[in-house]
């Protein structure tokens, strides 16, 4: 009877119930997991100790990624029978690989080269076995279809960029988690419009894992960090969403977001990508150091320097990014190059506005 029920069950008929069920399962698993992880981390002294570039004081458990991993895996295991099992298993395979890679880095510290190599292996697993890749530039700057080899290389670059973007912005309370939550909610909506329930449920699993984590991440008495384990898992899943969304949009001229998917993805992930590319330029060409060398030149550090708290900085950044998403969504039917120019211009202005205002105030005093 159960077998017949599963065979005749169409997930597209119950999108809201599946979405809420996945959030509920993930929320419950993570809510019970995080306190246990905090206790174990404290008893075994598996804590993040503040260093020279840290914006925190005191030692904090940094194994929140374990709870995220458990929540996502349990949720997909329980709901996957009615979804696209092949793609979900391959995604979970990549997530599992990055989980152990990140866990080792959180406990023992891995070199950037080993992390990069591990990320490439997880990325290739998906690209090779699903052939889900970015096949064209959607006529941005007049560039269309790419050769297969260039498409694979560019898709790998996008994966690596997004994974490491979330790793790099995880520097203050709530920032990486809140931006991930915003991006995953955005992807859940567009995948719902595409009737891609496997991705909607995966997004719900991530949302359910993030909500309890953010509560603890902002907490003073029970604080925890996601660590490299959490940031790499989140970055990888969001990169999967980005590539799959662009791929689905590009392959069908009748797709709702055929004319806007690359720019929408840039809007969903504007701050992580902006800060990552900015910090890469500063470290490589101004400071002449390794792009992976830790420092306090991130945009969120600049906000802290102006006197904003962690909560205020995170709120400002997330609100600006939401404004950009809404802006581009309303202009999604315009020429794609105009959309891109609008996003880059508006994003640069909005994120620079307060710094310009503060500079002008100082100039008046002089």
From TrEMBL:
Keywords in alphabetical order: Cell membrane, Magnesium, Membrane, Metal-binding, Transferase, Transmembrane, Transmembrane helix
Membrane topology (UniProt): Multi-pass membrane protein
GO biological process: cell wall macromolecule biosynthetic process; cell wall organization; lipopolysaccharide biosynthetic process
Membrane-spanning ranges: 16-41, 62-81, 87-104, 116-134, 140-162, 174-192, 198-218, 225-243, 263-282, 303-330, 336-357
Cofactor entry: Mg(2+)
Keyword Transmembrane in record: yes
InterPro entries in the record: Glycosyl_transferase_4 (IPR000715), PNAcMuramoyl-5peptid_Trfase_CS (IPR018480)
GO cellular component: a single term: plasma membrane
GO molecular function, one term: metal ion binding
CDD domains: GT_WecA_like (cd06853)
Main location: membrane
Keyword GTP-binding: no
Binding site for Mg(2+): 167, 228
Subcellular location as annotated: Cell membrane
PANTHER family: PHOSPHO-N-ACETYLMURAMOYL-PENTAPEPTIDE-TRANSFERASE, UNDECAPRENYL-PHOSPHATE ALPHA-N-ACETYLGLUCOSAMINYL 1-PHOSPHATE TRANSFERASE
Name of the featured protein: UDP-N-acetylmuramyl pentapeptide phosphotransferase/UDP-N-acetylglucosamine-1-phosphate transferase
Protein species of origin: Winogradskyella sediminis
């Amino acid at each position: 009877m159960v077998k017949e029920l599963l065979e005749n069950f169409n997930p597209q008929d119950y999108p809201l119930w599946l979405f809420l069920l996945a959030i509920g399962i993930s929320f419950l698993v993570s809510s019970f997991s995080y306190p246990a992880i905090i206790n174990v981390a404290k008893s075994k002294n598996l804590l993040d100790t503040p260093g020279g570039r840290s914006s925190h004081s005191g030692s904090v458990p940094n194994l929140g990624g374990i709870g995220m991993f458990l929540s996502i895996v349990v949720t997909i295991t329980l709901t996957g029978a009615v979804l696209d099992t092949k793609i979900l298993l391959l995604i979970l395979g990549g997530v599992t690989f990055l989980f152990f890679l990140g866990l080792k880095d959180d406990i023992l510290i891995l070199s950037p080269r080993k992390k990069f190599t591990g990320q490439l292996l997880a990325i290739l697993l998906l690209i090779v076995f699903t052939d889900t890749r970015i096949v064209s530039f959607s006529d941005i700057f007049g560039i269309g279809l790419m050769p297969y080899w260039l498409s694979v290389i560019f898709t790998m670059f996008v994966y690596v960029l997004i994974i490491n973007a979330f790793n790099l912005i995880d520097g203050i309370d709530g920032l990486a988690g809140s931006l991930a939550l915003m991006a995953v909610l955005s992807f859940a909506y567009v995948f719902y419009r595409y009737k891609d329930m496997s991705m909607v449920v995966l997004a719900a699993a991530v949302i359910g894992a993030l909500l309890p984590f953010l509560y603890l991440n902002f907490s003073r008495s029970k604080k925890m960090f996601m660590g490299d384990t959490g940031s790499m898992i989140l970055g990888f899943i969001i990169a999967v969403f980005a590539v799959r969304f662009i791929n689905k949009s590009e392959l069908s001229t009748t797709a709702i977001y055929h004319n806007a998917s690359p720019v929408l993805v840039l809007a969903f992930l504007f701050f992580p990508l902006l800060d990552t590319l900015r910090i890469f330029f500063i470290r490589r060409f101004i400071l002449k150091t390794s792009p992976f060398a830790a420092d306090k030149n991130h945009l969120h550090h600049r906000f802290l320097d102006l006197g904003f708290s962690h909560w205020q900085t995170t709120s400002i950044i997330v609100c600006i990014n939401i404004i950009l998403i809404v802006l581009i969504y309303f202009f999604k039917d315009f020429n794609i190059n105009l959309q891109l120019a609008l996003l880059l211009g508006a994003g640069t202005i909005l994120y620079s506005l307060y710094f310009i205002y503060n500079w002008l105030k100082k100039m008046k005093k002089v």
